[in-house]
Design goal:
This protein has 319 residues and is mostly beta strands. 8% of the residues lie in helices and 47% in strands. It has a 5-stranded mixed β-sheet, with no helix packed on it. It has a 4-stranded antiparallel β-sheet with strand order 2-27-26-25, with no helix packed on it. A 4-stranded antiparallel β-sheet has the order 3-4-5-6, with no helix packed on it. The mean pLDDT is 95. Belongs to the strictosidine synthase family. Pfam families: SSL_N, Str_synth.
């Protein structure tokens, strides 16, 4: 991993709601996000805190997490309570695309990408714990995360990968030949081939200095930006080597313990070979638990599962 450089905060934009868990930029430089009360928002003029304004696009009736902007301007929304949704950004309509998998309710749907042919891939972080108990899955190291595929014509989704450690963000390669998957529970990125003789097989892509959350690809020629929700915790690494019964006991305790996110925050950017292009970090940050990042002009916009707004930071120079 390259030496980290400073993540430079510029200003903060309050949204009037908590938990902009994922942030994605549209072609006009606006940022879309979903918040804890179920609303999907579009934020204008984030580069200037005095003129920034927020527009409500829809209400999912659940808890929106990962977003994927579609070519027609609508959104795929991974809702932790309702499943995989399609949201109309012009009229606010909410349509459920998937809410069950093989008869099991789809819960903790986390992130999605849509490929050029209309195929949608999406992740489930945990089949054991809901969003409100996410820390239990991280502690227990359940390996119940999934990558699923929805064909362009819809229907029942296929399970592409099972046994993932808190499957989270997704991003396609520039040529569409593989997906990059964030496994938060293993502090790594995983590569899943979509074409060729190894299609459907997973292999390590990049080890990270923290827990990856949402991913955002900056155009076909840009890097994949990775939000680090927290730094590596050596005692947690040791706990993951203990027997399952020990981890389950620790998970039950973690759910009831007060959780305070680390003051060390960071983001990285990687290329399609898994090489680090940027590694930015800040200690003693007032904005904590960075769960998403996207680039807008000269700025990086950070989202958080916990904060009541987004942070705008300086974008690093191109290497």
């Amino acid at each position: 991993m390259d030496r980290a450089t400073a993540l430079v905060p510029l200003h903060y934009v309050a949204l009037g709601a908590r938990g902009p868990e994922d942030v994605v930029a549209d072609p006009h430089g606006r940022v879309l996000t979903g918040v804890a009360d179920g609303r999907v928002l579009r934020v204008h003029h984030l580069g200037d805190p005095h003129t920034a304004r927020t527009e409500v696009l829809a209400d999912t009736g659940g808890r929106p997490l990962g977003l994927e902007l579609l070519p027609d301007g609508d959104l795929l929304v991974c809702d932790a309570e309702r499943g995989l949704l399609r949201v109309g950004t012009q009229d606010g309509t909410v349509r459920v695309l998937v809410d069950t998998v093989a008869g099991e309710p789809l819960r903790f749907c986390s992130n999605a990408v849509a490929l050029a042919d209309g195929t949608v891939y999406f992740t489930v972080s945990s089949r054991r714990y809901p969003l409100g108990e996410w820390i239990a899955d991280i502690v227990e190291h359940t390996g119940t995360g999934r990558l699923l595929r929805l064909a362009p014509e819809g229907g029942e989704p296929d399970v592409v990968l099972d046994g993932l450690q808190f499957a989270n963000g997704l991003a396609p390669s520039a040529d569409g030949s593989f997906l990059v998957i964030a496994e938060s529970g293993s502090r790594r990125l995983t590569r899943c081939a979509l074409t060729g003789p190894r299609a459907g097989h997973a292999e390590p892509f990049a080890d990270l200095p923290g827990m990856p959350d949402n991913l955002w690809r900056e155009g076909p020629d840009g890097p994949v930006w990775v939000a680090l929700a927290g730094p590596r915790v050596p005692p947690l690494d040791l706990l993951h080597r203990t027997p399952p019964a020990v981890r389950r006991t620790a998970a039950r305790a973690a759910v009831h313990a007060p959780y305070r996110p680390s003051g060390t925050v960071g983001v990285v950017a990687v290329d399609d070979a898994g090489r680090t292009v940027h590694h930015l970090t800040r200690r003693r940050s007032g904005f904590r638990m960075v769960t998403s990042v996207c680039a807008v002009g000269d700025h990086l916009v950070l989202g958080s599962l916990r904060e009541p707004g987004v942070a705008v930071c300086a974008r690093p120079a191109v290497r």
